[in-house]
Write a structure and sequence with these properties.
Chain A: Keywords: FAD, Flavoprotein, Oxidoreductase. The complex is a heterotrimer of chains A (464), B (413) and C (78). Chain A has eight helices and 30 strands. Chain A folds into three domains: 173 residues, FAD/NAD(P)-binding domain (3-Layer(bba) Sandwich), CATH 3.50.50.60; 132 residues, FAD/NAD(P)-binding domain (3-Layer(bba) Sandwich), CATH 3.50.50; 81 residues, FAD/NAD-linked reductase, C-terminal dimerisation domain (Enolase-like, domain 1). In chain A, the strands form seven sheets. Chain A has a six-stranded mixed β-sheet, covered by helices on one side. Chain A is an alpha/beta fold. Helices cover 20% and strands 30% of the residues of chain A. Chain B has a single domain, classed as Cytochrome P450 (Cytochrome p450, Orthogonal Bundle), CATH 1.10.630. In chain B, helix 8 packs antiparallel against helix 12 and helix 9 packs across helix 10. In chain B, strands 1-2-3-9-6-4 form a six-stranded mixed β-sheet, covered by helices on one side. Chain C has two helices and four strands. Chain C is an alpha+beta fold. Helix content of chain C is 19%, strand content 18%. Classes of the chains: A alpha/beta (464), B alpha+beta (413), C alpha+beta (78). Chains in contact: A-B, A-C, B-C. At the A-C interface, strand 3, helix 7, strand 24 and strand 25 of A face strand 3 of C.
Chain lengths: 464, 413, 78
């Protein structure tokens, strides 16, 4: 009676706090109510906005088709909750089961769900980052500011980092008729996420769209005029580019600083959790009342040798939030594991790019359908003789077949014939991923080993 | 595993009015080899997976010799290339993109959307024609003329030529039917089909020629004059594509609308709900596509490799039949599958197929059926079936009533 | 009205772009761009598009019992 009784009580009159009011936080809140949680629900978010959708920010919004404040997420159902928006969480006291907020208040919880996500990594030189015309793109406010500036018709835009966000921004700029230079440290756009073979296709797309693409290059400095407006960017090859706008697209940083002294297993790579979304503490012991979901989570995946995966994927945020919410109010035998096959999409240069699995894990790639030269293809990634990932360019209808191949660890290279198999698709070639120890724009899937605790954090006990 | 002539049971006219018990029997073995050769797939997930499986080909030239020998010829015209229906990527994709250019997004996103007013007018006009009658044959008086008028306007085919191609289209649609007769019957039938195909091709070639000289705002003109990144269709590709659209535009929506009205008359509570709430037509048509799909099965697919599925290995080059209408009634996928639930949630039916070969005309068929059913139930006062089940067409693939007698007390304005 | 499309599910069938061209547009052959807050006048078309989606990737607020427009009410209750 006592265990069941306490779960019953939690479901009926407990207090659940969700820190992070974006996609994962909202979907978790809806799931809690859907599954019959009738207790108190508090949702804390550092931005003043209702939960909104981010993918349109680098596409529809920059193209001017949709105002930046028009991406508020639809509700799947009513969520009876206390919303505390515009106030960040600043600390967690696990012993007292309390979250501290930036306005000095504190909220107590019976169960806590952390969905604080990531933020854009800023330009590392603070003075340069402060120049008028230097942007990052993560939030709705970022998108509003950047769109406003692009509408003024800058003579040239510099995109620093050609990952997915950077490439989408470059695409939007070209579509608006703006001159754009893309500076990428790697050998090609998207190389960190999809490897060099596919990266070359992305490079061709960019160049044909009129992007001034410069790879194997770093931006060494941003220079402003006397009024503090960005004027010029200096590159590692000694050249410089006159620009009025620079968008820093160097990947994301996990929002975990507020947990630094909490004792939770949280660090720059995210918050480690088990397959049931329960967070680990710094000792590698799983907690029973702190759950985590979305971009900030690192969770072990059976398909990928139980390595911890960090995913910045929309679908992962939704599904992990649903699983976490379910598990928060379920007895241990009713809990579900989060075993989502990584998948993402990007729209750029009129092309629909989709991927499943973990491409950066691969050593080889083979084009099983279509042709790289025609920019319509399906390619499969192999790792140690099995299919580990797949990517499509404008061939999304085939992708789910390859997802099943990944999920059943089918042999690589695929032994069978497919429709639209071309001569180039007869033999695998090296996938061309850069050395993972070299920093690049972040891929959207990161494998971070087997340890639930992050080696780069040091634990400072909460002061008494 | 070989099973006793399931194929013949499916094509047996005695099972036409209600093939669903037979499909339920079929689903007990999701993938089964018929004694006549083909592999029949009858369960939802297996069909779904095969429709997205790049080892499955729509090009019968990939059949192995044994399977090819057992596949009845359909009277193809050696002078015309296969349509995209019977091609694999990349040829399929190229032809479909070229055909989509004047029809839908991204290049012509509003053509179908802007036909809504016209659809409404045609529907109203046909129903006005019921004035003074107490009984109609829905097929001849409505379900047939409506989509035919639409496809003619869309393609740019003069409506007055309809009697000429009506017979050709009928013959060609019937040729999809897998019924076998005696060798002499088959040969005679093939002869008729070849003639119809040649006559239709000659007619369309003439029309395309004319449109390329003086283009109008229709699809044939756009196909004949347009140029994009894929270039242009060859003249024979244009003819064979136009013939495909014309026949498909004829023979499927007819059944969708007729099956829809039949289903509504069998479910008076749903009919009343639609009358009270015209918006119900939208999910209702989706449920109809699940419950009584106009294309019951996809014959004539084949395999490029051995495929292991549901405990069976379908060998390379086998003839593969996907029984869409059976998958749509699979209790492993749909709750209470034999009930018609007009607002069924999560209705990912197979009525328009799936994957790269998904129905080209789906958006138009949806709108046509929504308009037709909404207006029919609104305007017919106390409609009743004359005969249940109605007489069906012979065709097991494109299944639908040949006539649907409906009596009614009067006509609302 | 608010909507969101699960573009992981989306396979580019373009049914939505046919049926509600004000709210859904194809960018190239396969990439979908949509207006997350189309005008209420588009409601009928948008619902038609959501129902027609072969992979049911479109979530519209107010569909399937969801509330038409619930406001979070950016409360700063102390």
């Amino acid at each position: 009676m006592s265990v069941d009784g306490s779960l019953d009580r939690l479901r009926r009159e407990g207090h659940i706090v969700i820190v992070g009011a974006s996609l994962a936080g909202l979907r978790a809140a809806e799931t809690l109510r859907d599954e019959g949680f009738t207790g108190a629900l508090t949702i804390v978010g550092d931005e003043p906005h209702e939960p909104y959708d981010r993918p349109p920010l680098s596409k529809q919004v920059l193209l001017g088709r949709v105002p930046a404040d028009h991406t508020t997420l639809p509700r799947r159902r009513e969520v009876d909750a206390q919303w505390r928006l515009g106030v960040a969480a600043t600390g967690l006291d696990m012993a007292a089961k309390r979250v501290h907020l930036a306005d000095g208040a504190a909220v107590e919880y019976d169960r806590l769900l952390i969905t604080t996500g990531v933020r854009a990594r800023p330009w590392p030189h603070e003075l340069e980052a402060d120049l008028d015309g230097v942007f990052v793109l993560r939030t709705s406010d970022d998108a509003a500011g950047l769109h406003h500036r692009l509408s003024a018709g800058p003579r040239r835009v510099l995109v620093i980092g050609a990952g997915f966000t950077g490439s989408e921004i470059a695409s939007a700029c070209r579509e608006r008729g703006l001159d754009v230079t893309v500076a990428e440290r790697g050998s090609a756009p998207l190389v960190g996420a999809l490897g060099g073979v596919v990266g070359e296709v992305a490079a061709t797309l960019q160049r044909e769209a009129g992007v001034d693409l410069r790879c194997g290059i770093m931006v060494t400095g941003l220079e402003g005029d006397s009024a503090g407006r960005l004027r010029r960017a200096h590159l590692s090859d000694g050249s410089s580019v006159e620009v009025e706008v620079a968008v820093v697209c160097l990947g994301a940083t996990r929002n975990t600083e507020w947990l630094a002294s909490s004792g939770l297993g949280a660090g720059p790579r995210g918050i480690a959790c088990d397959a049931g979304c329960r967070a680990f503490d710094v000792r590698g012991i799983v907690t029973d009342d702190v759950f985590v979901a979305g971009d900030v989570a690192r969770s072990p995946h059976p398909l990928f040798g139980y390595q911890f995966l960090s995913l910045e994927h929309w679908g992962n945020a939704v599904e992990q939030a649903e699983t976490a919410a379910h598990n928060m109010i379920s007895s241990s035998t009713d809990r579900r594991p989060h075993v989502w096959t990584p998948s993402f999409w990007s729209a750029q240069f009129g092309m629909n790019i989709k991927s499943v699995g973990v491409p950066p894990m691969a050593d080889e790639i083979i084009v099983t359908q279509g042709s790289l030269a025609e920019r319509r293809f399906t390619a499969v990634y192999g790792y140690q003789g099995r299919v580990i990932a797949a990517v499509t360019f404008d061939q999304a209808k085939w992708l789910e077949f390859y997802q099943q191949q990944i999920e059943r660890a089918a042999p690589f290279p695929p032994e069978f014939t497919t429709v639209d198999r071309r001569p180039e698709g007869m033999h695998p070639v090296p996938a061309g991923f850069p050395d993972p120890s070299l920093p690049s724009h972040g891929p959207t899937v990161t494998l971070s080993g087997h340890s639930p605790s992050d080696r780069r954090i040091s634990f400072t006990p909460l002061s008494a | 595993m070989t099973s006793v002539a399931l194929l013949r049971q499916i094509t047996d006219y005695a099972n036409r009015a209600d093939p669903y018990p037979l499909y339920a029997e079929l689903r007990k073995t999701p993938v089964v080899r018929d004694e006549d050769g083909p592999y029949l797939v009858s369960t939802y997930w297996e069909i779904h997976h095969l429709l997205h499986d790049p080892r499955v080909s729509s090009d019968i030239r990939n059949l192995n010799p044994e399977a090819a020998a057992m596949t009845p010829a359909q009277g193809e015209d050696p002078n015309l290339p296969p349509t995209f229906l019977k091609l694999d990527p990349p040829e399929h994709d190229r032809l479909r993109r070229l055909t989509m250019r004047p029809f839908g997004p991204p290049h012509t996103p509003r053509r179908v959307y802007e036909m809504r007013g016209e659809l409404g007018e045609i529907v109203s006009g046909l129903i006005d024609g019921f004035q003074g009658k107490q009984q109609i044959d829905l097929v001849d008086d409505f379900s047939y003329p409506f989509p035919v008028s639409v496809i003619c306007r869309l393609l740019g085919i003069p409506r007055e030529d309809e009697p000429r191609f009506h017979a050709w289209a009928d013959t060609l649609a019937a040729s999809i039917d897998p019924v076998r007769g005696s060798a002499e019957d088959q040969e005679a039938q093939l002869q008729t089909v070849r003639q119809a195909r040649a006559d239709l091709a000659a007619y369309l070639a003439g029309l395309i020629e004319e449109r390329s000289r003086s283009p109008r705002d229709d699809m044939l003109s756009a196909m004949a004059t347009g140029h994009g990144p894929d270039g242009q269709m060859s003249p024979v590709e244009m003819v064979s594509t136009a013939a495909l659209l014309l026949i498909a535009g004829h023979e499927t929506t007819v059944n969708l609308i007729t099956n829809g009205m039949l289903t509504l008359l069998r479910n008076p509570d749903v009919l009343q709900r639609l009358r009270d709430d015209p918006d119900l037509a939208v999910p209702l048509v989706e449920e109809l596509l699940r419950f009584e799909p106009p294309v019951q099965l996809l014959p004539q697919k084949t395999t490029l490799a051995d495929i292991d599925i549901a405990g069976t290995t379908i060998p390379k080059g086998a003839s593969l039949w996907l029984v869409l209408a059976s998958g749509n009634r699979d209790p492993q996928r749909f709750l209470d599958p034999d009930r018609f639930i007009p607002d069924r949630p999560d209705n990912q039916h197979l009525g328009f197929s799936s994957g790269v070969h998904n129905c080209f005309g789906a958006p138009l068929a949806r709108l046509e059926a929504q308009f037709a059913l909404t207006e029919l139930v609104r305007r017919l006062d106390n409609p009743r079936l004359v005969q249940d089940p109605p007489p069906y067409r012979q065709n097991a693939v494109l299944r639908g009533p040949r006539h649907l007698g409906i009596t009614f007390d009067g006509l609302k304005p | 009205m608010r909507l969101v499309v699960d573009l992981n599910r989306c396979q580019g069938y373009a049914q939505c772009a046919f049926l509600a061209p004000e709210a859904f547009t194809m960018h190239g052959d396969e990439a979908l761009m949509y207006d997350p807050q189309p005008d209420d006048a588009q409601r009928g078309n948008v619902l038609r598009a959501a129902q027609a989606c072969p992979v049911k990737a479109i979530t519209v607020e107010g569909m399937n019992g969801a509330p038409a427009a619930e406001k979070a009410g950016a409360s700063h209750v102390g």
